[in-house]
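Blinded run. Sample ID left blank on purpose so nobody reads anything into the name before looking at the predicted structure. Input follows.
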Amino acid sequence: MDMSRRGPYRIPPTSALIAFESAARHGNFSRAARELRTSQSAISRHIASLERQLSTRLFHRSRTGVSLTDSGSRYRDAVAIGLGAIHAGAAEVAELSSVEQVELVVACSDEISHLFLMPRYDGLQKALGEQVRIRILTYQHNIRYLPPTPVADVLLTWDAATNVPEDCAVVLKEQVSPLCSPGYAALHAETLRRPVTDWSKLTFLDTARTNEGWTSWDEWFDVVGRPSAEPRHANFDNYTYILEAAAAGQGIALGWRHFIERYLESGALITLDDKFLETDNRFCAVVTKKGRQRPLARKCINFFERCI
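Blinded prediction complete.
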């Protein structure tokens, strides 16, 4: 297909872009197929069609799975921004029919939405009032992939760079502890009773994407000790996937307090240290330029300051 014949924009079909974004985010065609409720072969056809249209490889393929090429990584970033902007625009248009309802938009990453915001959603709704519609705008991979238009009123982030201190509230001070499933702890009980220097044969679950301000395994090792030999690391694109992998017994995750309560309460995960290590990192709620014009945004971050 010659994209130059598709009007003024050389854009592939939206279905192919959505398939590519999902496959790139999961690093797996099968998971993308499950998310989009289609078949793996359909995902493969979409990717192959994109690669023909772009005249470049987007994924490295092997028996063990797929990974993005350099071209694929660049294209993923552009597609994530574009789809995010389209999603935001569609939501804005849909809201035109409900002008009587006040709306507050909170932007955050997928994992923050799932692990931090949603467990506190009912409390936030009560604090703002039932007449307020709370809309959650999530971004993929990095905060810089938010749509360029000022859609959000409040931003929840580890990266709270702001020149106006009163527009930023520290929600929590980071506290971390290694954690794993009860089964993994039982299987490696003898090793886990030893100092961290003897943990070389364990698997550490880690994020594959850019650190946005949270503590990494290397930083944790610098404080408590480092395995004598380089251990195995299994990388995931999303912190939620890390916790799910830990619950499935695939290794040890670094747990952020106040993000892991449901896993601990259900017994799916247990901490490997009686105390959480407190760091200098801060998780913040930031009022955006748009939100500064709205008292409701300040009311929102006041809630987050009090909820921990």
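Unblinding after everyone has recorded impressions. The chain has a mean pLDDT of 86.
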